[in-house]
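#help-structures

NK: newbie question. if I give both the sequence and a SMILES, will the prediction place the ligand too? trying with magnesium ion
OV: yes, paste both and it writes out the complex. here, I ran yours:
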Amino acid sequence: MSGSRSNICLKLSMKTKETTQFQDLESLLTAQFEQHSERIAEGDTPAMKSLRMKHFEAFKAVGFPDSSHEKWRFTDIESALNQDFCHELSASRSDRNIEELFRCEVHNFRSEIISVLNGWYHSENGPLFTNEDGVIYGSVKAAKIAYPELFDARYGHLAHGTANSFVNLNTAMVQDGVFIYVPKGVEASRTLQIIKMIDRDENVFVQNRQLIILEEGSKLSLMHCDDSINHHTSLVNTVTEVFVGKNAHFELYKLQNLNDASGLINNTFISQEAGSNVRTNTLTFNCGMIRNNIEVALNGPGAHADVLGLYLMDKQQHVDNQIRILHNAAHCTSNELFKGILDDEATAVFNGYIYVKRDAQKTNAYQNNKNILLKPTARINTMPFLEIYADDVKCSHGATIGQLDQEAMFYLRSRGISQSNARLLLMYAFAADVINMINIEGLKSRIDDMVKKRLRGELSVCEKCVLHCGTPEKEYHFDIDLSKL
Amino acid sequence: MLLNIKNLHVEIDGKEIIKGLNLGVNQGEVHAIMGPNGTGKSTLAAAITGREGYEITAGEIWFKGTNIVDMEPDERANLGIFLSFQYPVEIPGVSMTNFMRTAINAKREYQGLPPVPAGEFLKMMEEKKNLVEIHSKLTNRSVNEGFSGGEKKRNEIFQMAMLEPSLAILDETDSGLDIDALKVVAKGVNQLKSGENAFVIITHYQRLLDYIVPDFVHVLFDGKIVKTGGKNLALELEAKGYEWIKEQHLFEA
Ligand SMILES: Nc1ncnc2c1ncn2[C@@H]1O[C@H](COP(=O)(O)OP(=O)(O)OP(=O)(O)O)[C@@H](O)[C@H]1O
Ligand SMILES: [Mg+2]
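OV: that's the protein plus ligand as structure tokens.
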């Protein structure tokens, strides 16, 4: 531990030998907050400061969940937390060439890159920037000082409950992240791409935050990539709040591709005003443990949300999708489709909750979760949950769990197609309806390639893909057995 | 001999369905296999193409000089065996084009050839589509998905035309077809027919054999070929049914 302002990393070691007392991560984090709260809250408005305190107290009181918690029954969060971590109090420095790290060359897909290293905003354009279209983006650190009223009116207003320990912890301890503001009527011509890289020689526990505001009639498509480029364990706890104004259009593509030793807890809250249109597509390619808490609140009449996801897991990976769609206003529609392919001992959870408020008449809500288990050792736990208080609504839900269609396998093979290619064709066909919902052509074909590569077990060797932006000394080993496909 | 089946025994779930069947097919020949429902015609086709669950407990299947009983279905296909399915399978999400390109390239790889150039492939698709009078729309769709019964059968013949097998087994490709479609299927077969390849046509009706004239007609009954004749046997079966054959067979047994 160092007192200097640069690159402070506080070790959170649970296996401290010097003390006889076993220290848990919870009390280590609490102690760290108490000791460094001033630095952590630097630049906060008074309202943000009290928000921090409120969430800190809630975290302190309840702590981390364990498997006895109803919402964490099927996800082993304890193992993910039971590690020695380093928790940074100031921005990371990397020995690698940062520009090189985040360089992205995607054919036919022009995006504007916002880079985040170990949770800290990093950009050539400085901490706050207005692009050609008039979209303002920058670090949360800088934005809260530049736009205090905006932060007071929005920040923490969607992620407001104190029931979620990880939101509590994040709100209490987070120091940086990405801020995006799309002014009224502004249509972003290029996709913004947040690339979050984890690169540290020690295990790192990251808190990271996004505040995204789309004013009335604006338009933004955002790609959000979570990626790790080494083998170290990381645990990323991210909170994203998105305010989608009247008649605004928002697309969010989340690409999750971390190493097997890492965990990602993604809390995304989206609120929609009247006539707005939102599409989220959560594409989970690789990670030891992922928890996606996605909440979409349809707060104004005529709003529509497509909430989509695709997860392709193998080995002992685990993905847990907790999706909440809140129909708070009449005449709104939502379409939820999550598809997954699980190999080996991979496990997944899908929990789809649809809430229809008393006066939310003419609601149309559709939910579907489809799974293919390639091995008997893979497991999926899927649960729909509908809570409907209006009477004039159309709601449907469905879940399927199956294997690859053996009739189709034989049909393909009887035409000379090898078993591995037949499997690929069928798996790809299964994934296609989620991929086809990607609106940006260049991105779609790129993701299409990535899915094919992932299904072949080749994704990690991709050189210039949207995730792996060419580091000179590559260390991508994801240990996927090629012979299996 | 192109195909030589010797004393074949096939079980499904431990139940013997094919019970010592012999069949020899030379290049340039057309064989028709007829017989009552449930006597093992499709089972024979499945055993020749290597379908899982059809256990060969005894006997041999020689094709182009190799006993293929332990070969994977895709290898048999690449060696030149094709089955037109009695019930073609719908595969949502796999486009006909992608499917056919993958199949053609698999065959080419097996033959040590590079993948087919895109232009050549499209030309080939066009040509074969015309042969079986398939509208281009079908090939933009997923394999057999939402195809009518007749369209599915036409699609089987289209695939056969694309893959140019040395042995094509047509399992009731004629059932459910209207007379025009029947002629299209027959035209497809007759155009492909050469001195190099052979056809095994499984059918219940004489009418397809009016258009594709068989060199031999076999009657399959109770897992064995119990009678073999020329094309006139089909006419005889059409007129008299199977009772007399059954009686004859049971009497001999
Ligand atoms: N998958 C299976 N499991 C159990 N029995 C089967 C299976 N497939 C076929 N059989 C049985 O094997 C026997 C032969 O069936 P097969 O389909 O080969 O008959 P077929 O001669 O083609 O009849 P059809 O003229 O009706 O098409 C039948 O008794 C059938 O019930
Ligand atoms: Mg049959």
